Amino acid sequence: MQGTFRFSFGPWNIHEGADPFGPEVRCTIPFNKKLEAYKKLGFDGVQFHDDDAVPNLNEKSCAQIASEATALKKTLTDHGLTAEFVAPRMWFDPHTIDGGYTSNSAECRQYALDRTKRTIDIANALGTRNIVLWLAREGTYIREAKDPVLATERIAEAIQMMLDYDRNIRVMIESKPNEPVDHAYIPTIGHAIAMGLMTSDPSRVGCLIETAHALLANLAPSDEMGFAMAHKKLWSVHLNDQNGLKFDQDLTFGAVDPRRAMNQVRVLDKHGFGNNGEWVGLDVKVMRTQKEGADLKHLEYSRKIFLRLLEISRSLDDSVIDGLTSERDYEELNYYILNAMLKG
Ligand code: XLS
Ligand code: MG
Fold first, then answer.
1. Residue nearest atom 6 of ligand 1, based on CA coordinates
2. What is the Å distance from ligand 2's center to 323 Cα?
3. Burial class (CB in 10 A: 0-12, 13-18, 19+), 196
4. Residue with the nearest Cα to atom 4 of ligand 1?
5. In a domain, 121, yes or no
6. Catalytic residue positions?
7. Do residues 4 and 310 lie in contact, with contact meaning Cβ atoms separated by under 8 Å?
8. What is the pLDDT of residues 219-249, one digit of tens each?
9. pTM score, two decimals?
10. C-alpha span between 277 and 235 (Å, rounded)
11. Ligand 1 pocket by C-beta < 6 Å: which residues?
12. Which protein residue has the closest C-alpha to ligand 1 atom 10?
């Protein structure tokens, strides 16, 4: 069974002018201009943080939030675009300095739960049932500062609250081992899948795998994807690349290790990713050095590289691979793959 691929990204994948370490090097691109870029670049899906969809939502009533999100849904339709997911942005507000669901302050935990309900309201208005949880600050810098048993239970309670608040939504956990915290509580996809088992409806808790996040945990992204697919839990991906164990680089897909990228495409394709409506998200960021006017190439080329690697993967002859694996001639198999990639 082959996969079916359509592509998405979030407005944050088009720069805001600067990177976190210095002044602006380009002008910001207004949100509507960002939306206009999607189709031209070959993308049909938009991923949202709650406040990408409804800016300054803390200052707005539920009715205002719903009406702005409904207006946005119409704008998306006018552009021929679909909302893939909405994620609560739980790492900008003063209430989330020390995390949201796992904060040591009861008031801040309540803020996190209330904010998550608004995220679900926005998802409903945008016509998607997918809620992504990137648990940015749910972890510690100093291990003694939080109790890991309690923290895990609190994350489970937050997910349970979401499942109860809306019987239709499903939660996709995007695990990441570090950054911005030193150690996060849900560092890998195995942890993410296990969180679902702590709720009353594990069938509505799955995951989103980001290449860089798997690499930051020193794991093979394609094996992480395979593990999640074996559990029928891989409901989205964030493809990109990463040059070793450092900060989350969000490099163009395949830029560091094309073979590692090919293996991600291959596992998705061989196991029918996309046939149930899953999107291929490209969580890539522009380089600081790119000039204005040439600052969307990271998205265009990530998608192109995915499609090129798909061709290479599909050109591999399964009977050759089966023959070499049954002979246990892995050196020859290695050469067969490298040769296919180098002549591709
Ligand atoms: C950060 C994450 C973030 C999520 C969405 O590391 O990748 O961009 O994908 O909240
Ligand atoms: Mg991501």
1. 248
2. 38
3. buried
4. 134
5. yes
6. 49, 52
7. no
8. 999 999 999 999 999 999 999 999 999 999 9
9. 0.97
10. 9
11. 49, 87, 132, 134, 174, 176, 210, 238, 248, 283
12. 134
